[in-house]
Amino acid sequence: VLIAVDAMGGDLAPREVVAGAVEAARHGTSLILVGPEARVREELAQHGETANLPIAIADADEAVAMDEAPLAALRRRPRASVRVAARLVATDQAQAFFTAGHTGAAFLAAHAEFGMLPGVDRPALAVIVPTRDGAAVLLDAGANPECQAEHLRQFGLMGSAYAQVALGVSKPRVGVLSIGEEAGKGNDLTREAHALLSTAPINFVGNLEARDLFSGRADVVVCDGFTGNIALKVGEGVAELIGQLLARELGSIIASDARLEEAFGRFTRRVDPSESGAAPLLGVAKLALIGHGRSTADAVRAGIAMAVRLANGTVVERLKQALAGRAS
Amino acid sequence: VLIAVDAMGGDLAPREVVAGAVEAARHGTSLILVGPEARVREELAQHGETANLPIAIADADEAVAMDEAPLAALRRRPRASVRVAARLVATDQAQAFFTAGHTGAAFLAAHAEFGMLPGVDRPALAVIVPTRDGAAVLLDAGANPECQAEHLRQFGLMGSAYAQVALGVSKPRVGVLSIGEEAGKGNDLTREAHALLSTAPINFVGNLEARDLFSGRADVVVCDGFTGNIALKVGEGVAELIGQLLARELGSIIASDARLEEAFGRFTRRVDPSESGAAPLLGVAKLALIGHGRSTADAVRAGIAMAVRLANGTVVERLKQALAGRAS
């Protein structure tokens, strides 16, 4: 498979993106780096001999910046890097694209270039979060700040199909993120979504409190994109804070003990969000993966690996079946 | 001061509530335990000699259960423990009440018994969260699942006044919890709230991403009660998960080293939500404090200590001034 990589998207682009891409190519992944050609070549030159690597370049303009209104920016610059990356997928020159840039711009580019799956009104960013004994899928993690209950129903269908592939669970338990477990708790959106999901052809387990996001009580957790993004970023913030406080209290002790340092490293990797690398935008007709805005080379490499895994699988086909109400 | 304690509220009531109350009384706090008298006496009897402690009992019915509709429950049972506790404050027999029971029921009881401060449409639960080098106030943490922008403006005024007392900050930095720092990011509610707070007589610092809740970038973070509760519970869930993973990776090593065990204990206390004990319901006309539903005796003791601290201060007076637009 071939993965189109938006070389210009993300806070640390193009440096870290190109570094991660080179790493992925050295491990055998075929890539198309998308960005201003001279700029991309310049970055590639930082990595020694790359001429023999399976890396092509597709010329494009700069990325949509984080503080730009994405719709206007993409209209003004149809050759923005993320749009060109999406076009490569639309025309089957690549099987998936990866960007660490503006989420809204990535969705608009995907939507414009290859459209939506039948039965989907809004796409959802599906993020994998660690749980006590495994992982769970959280969606929408930020593509749609305002959602209606029907969107959450669609997220439930898509999330269930995605969890079968991404987590290898045959009958994923699907819950609604809310503030109380009883059906009547929550806000208007969660109450209505609870009713719709109760009759959907999935293994619906009801409302979940936010602490249960990490307890393993559900395999798929659906919510609107505002709530999902808050949940994800709070998780990151707490993990970061705990890391800092632990380092302050235990740092010197840990550094003095090789066993401790190794155990602490295992722990850190387990809770590091960049380990999962990228989240697919479920609901668009082809594969679009979005990485964390602060993606480092390691995160980019992990994101590209995720794109390869999904491109080799049958995610889009399974989503189509799930949305059509067929058992998968 | 005298604190009314809802002996029946919370998942672990009355056992842990009475145990925490006895502990507080042994440290000199005067209390009124509110609940079915025989039941409360029975629990008190578990703690040896308590006759000399400054503990009175106010007879009441059972608590409002977590799965009851609180409005109907309080109408049906005007002598429910939380309602009687609120009445003791309304009639100045106590200066504050504490409950670890149903948040909605606590608000309705407070509202019915002593009403709202002028200028407040909705109360907000103000929780103190740890940050890297201190603490911040998050409100609303769950009293109002559906909010309008005007409510968030009021939360900003109240939160700012409360942070002056609770955190000892003279000009608290107030931010809106959103999904992107730019004024245009977020959902309809946060965009409108951003505009209203920009002209409010507080030190408004704009939108905050959820990871900044713990970074110390703001002293006061406002949001609707659904979002605030999700943020709080995700924080708890991540802290719990990290604790479990750390124990799995490092447990045996930590237990074998006294220095490590001590440092780890300091760390755990720092991130333990029960350490702050209780959150005031800001906006009601007198002091109402709400503890975590799972409050243990230690958390109840800390919650009562918080009630004493606020009752000895001038929080309600300061809130009144802030809401009237007077500098404090």
Write a compact overview of the structure shown.
The first copy, chain A, has 328 residues and is an alpha/beta fold. Chain A contains eleven helices and twelve strands.
Give, in spatial order, the strands making up the sheet with the most strands of chain A.
3-2-1-4-12-11-5
How helical, in percent, are the residues of chain A? Answer: 40-55%
* Unreliable stretches of chain A: none
Q: Kindly, what is the distance between the CA atoms of the first and last residues of chain A, rounded to a whole number of angstroms?
A: 24 Å
The number of E-state strands of chain A comes to: 12
* Biggest chain contact: A-B, 56 and 56 residues
The quaternary state of the protein chains shown equals homodimer
The shape of chain A is: globular
Largest sheet of chain A: 7 strands, mixed
SSE run of chain A = EHEHEHHEHEEEHEHEEHHEEHH
What proportion of the residues of chain A form beta strands (DSSP E)? 15-25%
Q: How many helices of chain A does DSSP assign?
A: 11
The chain-level structural class of chain A is alpha/beta
Q: What Rg of chain A, in angstroms, do the CA atoms define?
A: 20 Å
